[in-house]
Amino acid sequence: MRVLCIAAHPDDEILGVGGTLLRHKNKGDEVSVALCYPCRVGDDEIKEASSRMGIPYHYYVDYVQKLVDEVHPDIVYTHSGADLHSDHRDLLQRVMVACRPLSGVRGLYCFETPSATDWGPRPFIPQKFVDITATVDGKVYAMEAYESELRDYPHPRNIDSLDHRAAFWGQRVGVDYAEAFEVVRECW
Predict the structure, then answer these.
(1) Which of 1, 7, 109, 105 is CA-nearest to residue 59?
(2) Which CATH architecture has domain 2-186?
(3) Taking the model in full, what pTM does it have?
């Protein structure tokens, strides 16, 4: 199975779906990450995060449709429309166009981005949960590569906050740690 995460900025991929991507990787799926918008995060931090995840990164991707056509993903993860950040909402629209029903994408899921989704204009209402108990430590380790993006507690982009959020979603579904997703489309 080919899995593609299309995220706006460096760190969004780990904040929202890092544990799930690691779970896919551990299962033997072909996983990659695309980052679309440059920001203050340096290339060294991105390369370190990619190395810690053990997943190839494409950056900075300008044309989402071309990437989807080249990768032919079965599953795509991207931002929620609930996000406050306009880059995230813009990217969701670009991904929706690239992943139309005849694109071959069988599962299209939206993740939350701490400090964007939780501060957004509408609630994030997940329908799918992934148990990341076995990969939460890897998610945290990868997030630590983004030193410039980490904040002091209680900011959502804090290591303790990430742990608490994963535990919160886990409690919702009866596991230690989970990540949550809105389902745009799922056909298996």
Answers:
(1) 7
(2) 3-Layer(aba) Sandwich (3.40)
(3) 0.97
